[in-house]
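Bug report

Summary: C-alpha cells for Bile acid-CoA:amino acid N-acyltransferase differ between web form and batch submission.
Environment: batch mode, default settings.
Steps: 1) Submit the sequence below via batch. 2) Compare with the web form result.

Sequence submitted:
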Amino acid sequence: MVQLTATPLSALVDEPVHIRATGLTPLQLVVFHASLEDEVGNLFYSRAFYRANEVGEIDLDHAAALGGDYKGVHPMGLFWSLKPQKLVTRLLKRDVMTSPFRVQIKLYDRHLPIETKTSEAPKASVTLERWYVAPGVTRIPVREGRLRGTLFVPSGEGRFPGVIDMYGTSGGLLEFRASLLASRGFASLALAHCGFEDLPPQPDKVDLEYFEEAANFLLKHPKVLGPGIGIVSVCRGAEIGLSMAIHLKQVTATVLINGPNFIFSIPHVYRGQILKPRPHSVQSISINALGFVEFYSIFDESGPETSQSCLPIEKARGPFLFIVGEDDKNVNGKVFAKQATEQLKRHGKNNWTLLSYPGAGHVIEPPYSPLCCVSGIANVCSAIHWGGEVVPHAAAQEHSWKEIQKFLRKHLTPVIPSSKYF
C-alpha cells in the first residue's frame, strides 16, 4: 500500500518538513504535486518528478528530483517552488493568528497531465498546516496617537529584544514577518507608513518623527528589553530604516533588504531638516518581453549628484546588516550596498555585514516562501518585475533568515559577564 507522510504536519512556515513516500514499486517514476489556496482563493501549485529506490521508497531529504519545477536534492522544493495560477500574484498571509496556510501534497503516477488540475485520483495525499505565529504569541493592535501597526509579543516571562518591521511602497499593514519574529523571541512591531486606515496611500513626505514615536512606543512597552531597538526593512521600508538609523538614537541595529543608500522619491523631514530625494530618469524604466516593468536603471550612478545625495550612514549608532538579491530587477541593491559600505569604511567604521546572493530577487521573504518574481502595486504599476531565480532565491531566503535573527540577538541582547568564583 502506498503511503505518503510529512513530519511535522503542523509547524511554523520557517520550519522544514520531512516528506517520505513508501510502498511504491521499485524504481517507480512518480509525481509529487503540492497546492495551496490563499485567503482570497488564489491557487498556487508545484510539481516534481521522482523515482523510487530499490525498496520502493522516496525520501525527499535524500532523493533527487528528476524534473518539474526543480531538479536535484531539495527537501523543501515543493514549497518554495509554488507558483501562482494567475501570474501577477503574490502569496501574502493576512490573518496570521487564527488560520494557517494549508498545503496539500499528492502523489501521482508519472502520467499526471501537465495542466494544473486533474481528475485522476492520487495514490496518496497529505495536508500540512503552515503557521505564521507560534502558540502563546500575543497580537496587540496599535492605534496610539497617529501610530498604526500591530505589536507581537512572544510568550514567556521576562523582556524581549524589540524590533520594528517595515515593508515598502505597497503600503498597508503586513504582519507575517513580525509575527514570525515574535515566534522566534523578538517583540516585533509591524509598522504601517502609508496606505493603511487614515495613512495616505501616496504621502508627499516621510515624517521621521512618526517613526521616532514608534521607537519610543516600543521601548516603553514593559515586555521590551531596551535600551535600543532593531529595524528589519525592505525596499522603501529600507530607505526609511536607514534614515531612522542615522537620525534616531533609539535604533541600535538595522537590517536593510534590497534598499537604497539615498532617498527615492519624496523628501524625509525631521525636526526642521529636509532631506531631498535623488533625481531619477523615468525614461530609463525598462519593460521586458512579457510587459513587466523594471525600475532597476532609473538612477544614474555616474552623475555628480550620486555622492552628494547619499545619506550620511556614518552618523548611525548601531551596526548594519545589508541583504542584497543580485538578480533584483527593481533596486540596484548590490551597487547601493557597496556605496554604503565604502562610505562607512572611509569614516573608519567596520560595523556592517553584507550578504549578497547571486540569483536572488527583490522580494526576499522568510524561508520556504515561494519566489514572487512579478506582482502589482496599486497606484504605482500593475506588473513590476522583481527578479530572482527559483533555486538560488530559495537558498538566499533560508540563509538570510538565520542571519537576521543572529544579527538582532547579537546587537540587541546585553552581554552578561560570567561570574568567576575563586
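Above is the batch result. After comparison, the two runs are identical; trailing whitespace caused the diff. The chain has two domains: 3-131, 138-412. The two ends are 66 Å apart (CA to CA).
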